Amino acid sequence: MVYEVAKLLAEEHEVHVFCHHCPKAPNEEVMEGILVHRSKIRVHPHSYFRRFLSSSTLPFVLLRRRFDVIITTDFFPPIPSYVTAKAKRTPIILISGGLFWSLLKKNSDLKPENTRFSEVLARIATRVRWIHTLLLVGSFIENRYHSINYDAWIVVSETARKELVQIGVKRDKIFLINMGVNLKFFDSIIKKEERKRPTVGFVGNLVPSKGILDLIEAFNLVLKEIPQAKLVIAGDGPEKKKAMRKSNALYISENIEFLGLVNYEESAKIIKSSDCIVIPGLVEKLSLVLLEAMACRTPVIAYDIPVVNDLVINGNNGYLVYPRDINQLSKRIVRILLNPALKEKLGKQGRELVEKRYTWKQATDRILSIICRLVFRS
Protein backbone atom coordinates (compact mmCIF):
# COMPACT_ATOMS: atom_id res chain seq x y z
CA MET A 1 0.00 0.00 0.00
CA VAL A 2 2.75 2.47 0.98
CA TYR A 3 4.63 2.04 -2.30
CA GLU A 4 1.61 2.31 -4.60
CA VAL A 5 0.11 5.35 -2.83
CA ALA A 6 3.49 7.08 -2.46
CA LYS A 7 4.18 6.57 -6.18
CA LEU A 8 0.94 8.28 -7.18
CA LEU A 9 1.36 11.09 -4.65
CA ALA A 10 4.91 11.70 -5.92
CA GLU A 11 3.56 12.66 -9.33
CA GLU A 12 2.57 16.07 -7.93
CA HIS A 13 4.07 16.22 -4.42
CA GLU A 14 7.38 15.67 -2.66
CA VAL A 15 7.20 12.29 -0.93
CA HIS A 16 9.77 10.79 1.44
CA VAL A 17 9.60 7.19 2.62
CA PHE A 18 11.65 6.06 5.64
CA CYS A 19 11.95 2.30 5.93
CA HIS A 20 14.01 -0.60 7.25
CA HIS A 21 17.24 -1.59 5.55
CA CYS A 22 17.29 -4.82 3.56
CA PRO A 23 20.48 -6.53 2.34
CA LYS A 24 22.06 -5.11 -0.84
CA ALA A 25 19.76 -2.06 -0.85
CA PRO A 26 21.32 1.44 -0.88
CA ASN A 27 20.86 3.79 2.08
CA GLU A 28 19.08 6.30 -0.15
CA GLU A 29 17.61 6.23 -3.64
CA VAL A 30 14.83 7.68 -5.78
CA MET A 31 12.19 5.16 -6.86
CA GLU A 32 9.61 6.44 -9.36
CA GLY A 33 9.75 9.90 -7.83
CA ILE A 34 9.76 8.69 -4.21
CA LEU A 35 12.73 9.75 -2.05
CA VAL A 36 13.56 6.55 -0.16
CA HIS A 37 15.63 6.66 3.06
CA ARG A 38 16.67 3.38 4.70
CA SER A 39 17.82 2.86 8.25
CA LYS A 40 21.50 1.95 8.61
CA ILE A 41 20.49 -0.97 10.81
CA ARG A 42 19.85 -3.99 8.64
CA VAL A 43 16.86 -6.11 9.61
CA HIS A 44 15.35 -9.51 8.94
CA PRO A 45 11.57 -9.62 8.26
CA HIS A 46 10.98 -11.91 11.26
CA SER A 47 13.33 -10.14 13.70
CA TYR A 48 11.14 -7.89 15.84
CA PHE A 49 14.12 -6.84 17.97
CA ARG A 50 16.11 -5.50 15.02
CA ARG A 51 12.99 -3.85 13.60
CA PHE A 52 12.57 -2.12 16.96
CA LEU A 53 16.20 -0.92 16.91
CA SER A 54 15.79 0.27 13.33
CA SER A 55 12.59 2.19 14.15
CA SER A 56 14.16 3.83 17.20
CA THR A 57 16.50 5.79 14.89
CA LEU A 58 13.57 7.51 13.15
CA PRO A 59 13.35 10.63 15.38
CA PHE A 60 17.01 11.49 14.76
CA VAL A 61 16.32 11.49 11.01
CA LEU A 62 12.88 13.10 11.00
CA LEU A 63 13.79 15.95 13.36
CA ARG A 64 16.32 17.28 10.83
CA ARG A 65 13.62 17.81 8.19
CA ARG A 66 10.32 19.63 7.86
CA PHE A 67 7.20 17.87 6.59
CA ASP A 68 3.62 19.01 6.12
CA VAL A 69 2.31 15.68 7.36
CA ILE A 70 3.73 12.40 8.68
CA ILE A 71 2.03 9.09 7.89
CA THR A 72 3.08 6.03 9.88
CA THR A 73 2.16 2.35 9.83
CA ASP A 74 2.22 -0.37 12.45
CA PHE A 75 4.11 -2.29 14.03
CA PHE A 76 7.13 -0.39 15.46
CA PRO A 77 7.34 2.99 13.64
CA PRO A 78 4.25 4.65 15.24
CA ILE A 79 5.77 5.69 18.58
CA PRO A 80 8.99 7.29 17.18
CA SER A 81 6.94 8.92 14.42
CA TYR A 82 4.37 10.23 16.90
CA VAL A 83 7.03 11.70 19.21
CA THR A 84 8.66 13.45 16.26
CA ALA A 85 5.35 14.78 14.92
CA LYS A 86 4.38 16.28 18.27
CA ALA A 87 7.82 17.81 18.76
CA LYS A 88 7.60 19.47 15.33
CA ARG A 89 3.86 20.23 15.62
CA THR A 90 3.23 18.29 12.43
CA PRO A 91 -0.08 16.45 11.74
CA ILE A 92 0.31 12.67 11.96
CA ILE A 93 -1.82 9.87 10.50
CA LEU A 94 -1.70 6.19 11.47
CA ILE A 95 -2.50 3.57 8.83
CA SER A 96 -3.77 0.44 10.59
CA GLY A 97 -4.56 -3.01 9.30
CA GLY A 98 -6.27 -3.92 12.58
CA LEU A 99 -5.38 -5.24 16.02
CA PHE A 100 -3.48 -8.38 15.01
CA TRP A 101 -1.90 -9.18 18.39
CA SER A 102 -5.12 -8.49 20.25
CA LEU A 103 -6.94 -10.95 17.99
CA LEU A 104 -4.30 -13.60 18.68
CA LYS A 105 -4.63 -13.03 22.43
CA LYS A 106 -8.42 -13.12 22.28
CA ASN A 107 -8.35 -16.50 20.54
CA SER A 108 -5.73 -17.88 22.93
CA ASP A 109 -7.95 -16.96 25.90
CA LEU A 110 -10.83 -19.08 24.60
CA LYS A 111 -11.22 -22.66 25.75
CA PRO A 112 -10.05 -25.24 23.18
CA GLU A 113 -13.59 -26.58 22.68
CA ASN A 114 -14.74 -23.09 21.70
CA THR A 115 -12.17 -22.31 19.02
CA ARG A 116 -10.40 -24.26 16.32
CA PHE A 117 -7.74 -21.56 16.29
CA SER A 118 -6.38 -22.96 19.58
CA GLU A 119 -4.76 -25.82 17.64
CA VAL A 120 -2.56 -23.37 15.76
CA LEU A 121 -1.58 -21.59 18.97
CA ALA A 122 -0.77 -24.97 20.51
CA ARG A 123 1.60 -25.71 17.62
CA ILE A 124 3.34 -22.38 18.17
CA ALA A 125 3.50 -22.95 21.92
CA THR A 126 5.43 -26.18 21.46
CA ARG A 127 8.33 -24.08 20.17
CA VAL A 128 7.74 -20.92 22.19
CA ARG A 129 6.84 -21.76 25.80
CA TRP A 130 6.28 -18.14 26.64
CA ILE A 131 3.75 -17.63 23.82
CA HIS A 132 0.99 -16.31 26.11
CA THR A 133 3.32 -13.75 27.67
CA LEU A 134 4.36 -12.69 24.18
CA LEU A 135 0.71 -12.27 23.16
CA LEU A 136 -0.05 -10.29 26.31
CA VAL A 137 2.87 -7.90 25.76
CA GLY A 138 2.19 -7.63 22.02
CA SER A 139 -1.51 -6.81 22.47
CA PHE A 140 -0.73 -4.30 25.27
CA ILE A 141 1.76 -2.39 23.10
CA GLU A 142 -0.52 -2.60 20.07
CA ASN A 143 -3.54 -1.20 21.92
CA ARG A 144 -1.49 1.66 23.41
CA TYR A 145 0.08 2.89 20.18
CA HIS A 146 -3.22 2.60 18.32
CA SER A 147 -5.12 4.72 20.84
CA ILE A 148 -2.75 7.68 21.36
CA ASN A 149 -3.80 11.07 20.01
CA TYR A 150 -3.15 10.89 16.26
CA ASP A 151 -4.76 13.51 14.06
CA ALA A 152 -6.41 10.78 11.97
CA TRP A 153 -6.50 7.02 11.56
CA ILE A 154 -6.74 5.25 8.21
CA VAL A 155 -8.02 1.65 8.24
CA VAL A 156 -8.25 -0.80 5.36
CA SER A 157 -11.35 -2.72 6.51
CA GLU A 158 -14.59 -2.22 8.41
CA THR A 159 -13.36 -4.83 10.90
CA ALA A 160 -10.32 -2.70 11.72
CA ARG A 161 -12.53 0.38 12.21
CA LYS A 162 -14.73 -1.47 14.71
CA GLU A 163 -11.64 -2.64 16.62
CA LEU A 164 -10.34 0.92 16.98
CA VAL A 165 -13.71 2.20 18.17
CA GLN A 166 -13.75 -0.54 20.82
CA ILE A 167 -10.45 0.68 22.30
CA GLY A 168 -11.67 4.26 22.50
CA VAL A 169 -10.75 5.93 19.20
CA LYS A 170 -13.34 8.47 18.07
CA ARG A 171 -15.21 7.18 15.05
CA ASP A 172 -15.18 10.55 13.26
CA LYS A 173 -11.36 10.48 13.18
CA ILE A 174 -11.22 7.05 11.52
CA PHE A 175 -11.29 6.87 7.72
CA LEU A 176 -11.93 3.64 5.85
CA ILE A 177 -9.86 3.47 2.67
CA ASN A 178 -9.91 0.30 0.63
CA MET A 179 -6.66 -1.22 -0.53
CA GLY A 180 -6.00 -1.19 -4.22
CA VAL A 181 -4.63 -3.23 -7.08
CA ASN A 182 -2.53 -2.10 -10.01
CA LEU A 183 -4.80 -3.39 -12.75
CA LYS A 184 -2.44 -2.41 -15.57
CA PHE A 185 0.30 -4.53 -14.03
CA PHE A 186 -1.86 -7.64 -13.71
CA ASP A 187 -3.31 -7.18 -17.18
CA SER A 188 0.24 -7.12 -18.55
CA ILE A 189 1.08 -10.47 -16.93
CA ILE A 190 1.13 -13.39 -19.33
CA LYS A 191 -0.03 -16.73 -17.99
CA LYS A 192 2.42 -19.55 -17.67
CA GLU A 193 2.12 -22.23 -20.31
CA GLU A 194 -1.48 -23.39 -20.36
CA ARG A 195 -1.72 -25.99 -17.63
CA LYS A 196 -3.10 -29.34 -18.75
CA ARG A 197 -3.94 -30.23 -15.15
CA PRO A 198 -6.49 -28.49 -12.89
CA THR A 199 -4.35 -26.26 -10.69
CA VAL A 200 -4.85 -24.89 -7.19
CA GLY A 201 -2.61 -22.00 -6.12
CA PHE A 202 -1.36 -20.72 -2.76
CA VAL A 203 0.73 -17.55 -2.37
CA GLY A 204 1.85 -16.46 1.09
CA ASN A 205 4.12 -16.97 4.08
CA LEU A 206 4.33 -20.54 5.33
CA VAL A 207 3.60 -19.82 8.99
CA PRO A 208 1.09 -21.61 11.29
CA SER A 209 -1.61 -18.94 11.03
CA LYS A 210 -1.71 -19.20 7.20
CA GLY A 211 -3.14 -22.73 7.31
CA ILE A 212 -0.92 -24.42 4.72
CA LEU A 213 -1.29 -27.80 6.49
CA ASP A 214 -5.08 -27.48 6.25
CA LEU A 215 -4.76 -26.86 2.52
CA ILE A 216 -2.63 -29.98 2.04
CA GLU A 217 -5.18 -32.09 3.94
CA ALA A 218 -7.99 -30.65 1.83
CA PHE A 219 -6.01 -31.19 -1.37
CA ASN A 220 -5.57 -34.84 -0.42
CA LEU A 221 -9.38 -35.14 -0.51
CA VAL A 222 -9.50 -33.23 -3.80
CA LEU A 223 -7.19 -35.81 -5.38
CA LYS A 224 -9.65 -38.59 -4.56
CA GLU A 225 -12.06 -36.97 -7.02
CA ILE A 226 -9.60 -35.31 -9.39
CA PRO A 227 -6.41 -37.46 -9.36
CA GLN A 228 -4.63 -35.28 -11.95
CA ALA A 229 -5.03 -32.05 -9.95
CA LYS A 230 -1.96 -30.05 -8.94
CA LEU A 231 -1.23 -27.73 -6.00
CA VAL A 232 1.33 -24.94 -6.50
CA ILE A 233 2.70 -23.37 -3.30
CA ALA A 234 4.66 -20.12 -3.52
CA GLY A 235 6.19 -18.94 -0.26
CA ASP A 236 8.58 -19.86 2.50
CA GLY A 237 8.61 -20.03 6.28
CA PRO A 238 8.79 -22.33 9.32
CA GLU A 239 5.87 -24.51 8.17
CA LYS A 240 7.48 -25.47 4.86
CA LYS A 241 9.25 -28.57 6.20
CA LYS A 242 6.09 -29.74 7.96
CA ALA A 243 4.09 -29.18 4.80
CA MET A 244 6.56 -31.22 2.75
CA ARG A 245 6.58 -34.01 5.33
CA LYS A 246 2.80 -34.05 5.37
CA SER A 247 2.58 -34.30 1.59
CA ASN A 248 5.07 -37.19 1.67
CA ALA A 249 3.14 -38.94 4.45
CA LEU A 250 -0.06 -38.67 2.41
CA TYR A 251 1.77 -39.90 -0.73
CA ILE A 252 0.70 -36.84 -2.73
CA SER A 253 4.05 -35.07 -3.09
CA GLU A 254 4.07 -35.71 -6.86
CA ASN A 255 0.97 -33.52 -7.12
CA ILE A 256 2.40 -30.64 -5.08
CA GLU A 257 5.01 -28.15 -6.25
CA PHE A 258 6.86 -26.08 -3.63
CA LEU A 259 8.34 -23.05 -5.36
CA GLY A 260 9.77 -21.26 -2.31
CA LEU A 261 10.01 -17.47 -2.32
CA VAL A 262 9.12 -15.88 -5.64
CA ASN A 263 9.19 -12.26 -6.82
CA TYR A 264 6.06 -10.19 -7.33
CA GLU A 265 5.81 -10.82 -11.06
CA GLU A 266 6.22 -14.56 -10.61
CA SER A 267 3.53 -14.64 -7.92
CA ALA A 268 1.22 -12.78 -10.31
CA LYS A 269 1.85 -15.42 -12.98
CA ILE A 270 1.01 -18.18 -10.49
CA ILE A 271 -2.22 -16.44 -9.49
CA LYS A 272 -3.23 -15.85 -13.10
CA SER A 273 -2.39 -19.40 -14.19
CA SER A 274 -4.29 -21.15 -11.36
CA ASP A 275 -7.89 -22.30 -11.56
CA CYS A 276 -8.43 -20.99 -8.04
CA ILE A 277 -6.43 -19.42 -5.22
CA VAL A 278 -6.94 -20.80 -1.72
CA ILE A 279 -6.24 -18.67 1.37
CA PRO A 280 -6.88 -20.80 4.47
CA GLY A 281 -5.46 -18.26 6.93
CA LEU A 282 -6.94 -18.02 10.42
CA VAL A 283 -5.75 -14.46 11.01
CA GLU A 284 -5.43 -11.78 8.34
CA LYS A 285 -4.62 -8.06 8.60
CA LEU A 286 -4.34 -7.25 4.93
CA SER A 287 -5.45 -9.55 2.17
CA LEU A 288 -3.76 -8.27 -0.95
CA VAL A 289 -3.54 -11.76 -2.45
CA LEU A 290 -7.34 -11.88 -2.49
CA LEU A 291 -7.53 -8.62 -4.41
CA GLU A 292 -4.73 -9.69 -6.74
CA ALA A 293 -6.57 -12.93 -7.52
CA MET A 294 -9.75 -11.00 -8.29
CA ALA A 295 -7.77 -8.64 -10.52
CA CYS A 296 -6.58 -11.71 -12.44
CA ARG A 297 -10.15 -13.08 -12.71
CA THR A 298 -9.11 -16.07 -10.58
CA PRO A 299 -11.73 -17.35 -8.09
CA VAL A 300 -10.76 -17.30 -4.41
CA ILE A 301 -11.58 -19.73 -1.60
CA ALA A 302 -10.84 -18.54 1.91
CA TYR A 303 -11.74 -19.09 5.53
CA ASP A 304 -14.63 -16.98 6.80
CA ILE A 305 -12.71 -14.66 9.13
CA PRO A 306 -12.65 -10.88 9.77
CA VAL A 307 -11.10 -8.75 6.99
CA VAL A 308 -11.39 -11.61 4.48
CA ASN A 309 -15.19 -11.59 4.68
CA ASP A 310 -15.05 -7.85 4.02
CA LEU A 311 -13.64 -8.67 0.58
CA VAL A 312 -15.16 -12.01 -0.42
CA ILE A 313 -18.90 -12.24 -1.09
CA ASN A 314 -19.71 -15.92 -0.70
CA GLY A 315 -20.87 -17.42 -3.98
CA ASN A 316 -20.35 -14.15 -5.85
CA ASN A 317 -16.61 -13.57 -6.29
CA GLY A 318 -15.42 -16.66 -4.42
CA TYR A 319 -16.27 -18.93 -1.52
CA LEU A 320 -16.01 -18.56 2.26
CA VAL A 321 -15.47 -21.70 4.32
CA TYR A 322 -15.86 -22.18 8.06
CA PRO A 323 -12.32 -22.08 9.54
CA ARG A 324 -10.61 -25.48 9.56
CA ASP A 325 -13.52 -27.28 7.89
CA ILE A 326 -11.30 -29.44 5.69
CA ASN A 327 -14.16 -31.31 4.02
CA GLN A 328 -15.96 -28.14 3.01
CA LEU A 329 -12.70 -26.60 1.81
CA SER A 330 -12.02 -29.58 -0.46
CA LYS A 331 -15.59 -29.56 -1.81
CA ARG A 332 -15.34 -25.92 -2.79
CA ILE A 333 -12.05 -26.55 -4.58
CA VAL A 334 -13.50 -29.53 -6.46
CA ARG A 335 -16.58 -27.56 -7.43
CA ILE A 336 -14.51 -24.86 -9.13
CA LEU A 337 -12.05 -27.27 -10.76
CA LEU A 338 -14.87 -29.29 -12.34
CA ASN A 339 -16.97 -26.34 -13.45
CA PRO A 340 -15.26 -24.01 -15.97
CA ALA A 341 -18.42 -21.87 -16.32
CA LEU A 342 -18.54 -21.30 -12.56
CA LYS A 343 -14.84 -20.46 -12.52
CA GLU A 344 -15.37 -17.86 -15.26
CA LYS A 345 -18.41 -16.38 -13.49
CA LEU A 346 -16.70 -16.01 -10.10
CA GLY A 347 -13.57 -14.59 -11.73
CA LYS A 348 -15.54 -12.06 -13.76
CA GLN A 349 -17.50 -10.83 -10.74
CA GLY A 350 -14.32 -10.56 -8.70
CA ARG A 351 -12.72 -8.40 -11.39
CA GLU A 352 -15.78 -6.15 -11.56
CA LEU A 353 -15.64 -5.63 -7.79
CA VAL A 354 -11.96 -4.66 -7.93
CA GLU A 355 -12.55 -2.22 -10.78
CA LYS A 356 -15.40 -0.60 -8.87
CA ARG A 357 -13.93 -0.33 -5.37
CA TYR A 358 -10.28 -1.38 -5.15
CA THR A 359 -7.91 0.71 -7.26
CA TRP A 360 -4.86 2.60 -6.00
CA LYS A 361 -6.06 5.79 -7.70
CA GLN A 362 -9.20 5.76 -5.57
CA ALA A 363 -7.21 5.07 -2.39
CA THR A 364 -4.67 7.81 -3.17
CA ASP A 365 -7.34 10.43 -3.87
CA ARG A 366 -8.99 9.73 -0.52
CA ILE A 367 -5.70 9.83 1.38
CA LEU A 368 -4.79 13.12 -0.29
CA SER A 369 -8.14 14.62 0.76
CA ILE A 370 -7.43 13.64 4.39
CA ILE A 371 -3.94 15.14 4.20
CA CYS A 372 -5.31 18.41 2.82
CA ARG A 373 -7.93 18.56 5.54
CA LEU A 374 -5.24 18.24 8.24
CA VAL A 375 -2.66 20.53 6.64
CA PHE A 376 -5.05 23.37 5.77
CA ARG A 377 -7.38 23.17 8.73
CA SER A 378 -7.81 26.41 10.62
Separation, N- and C-terminal Cα atoms:
30 Å
Radius of gyration equals 21 Å
Query: Regarding CATH, which class of the largest domain?
Result: Alpha Beta
Judging from the principal axes of the Cα atoms, what is the shape?
A: globular
CATH architecture of the largest domain: 3-Layer(aba) Sandwich
What is the residue-averaged pLDDT?
86
Number of beta strands: 13
Number of domains: 2
**How would you sum up the major sheet?**
6 strands, parallel
Give the SSE string. Answer: HEEEHHEHEHHHEHEHEHEHEHEHEHEHHH
What strand order characterises the main sheet?
10-9-8-11-12-13
What's the CATH topology label of the largest domain? Answer: Rossmann fold
**Which structural class do you get from the secondary structure elements?**
alpha/beta
CATH homolog superfamily of the largest domain:
Glycogen Phosphorylase B
Identify low-pLDDT runs.
110-117, 123-128
Helix content: 40-55%
Discrete helix count = 17
Question: What percentage of the residues does DSSP assign to strands (E)?
Answer: 15-25%
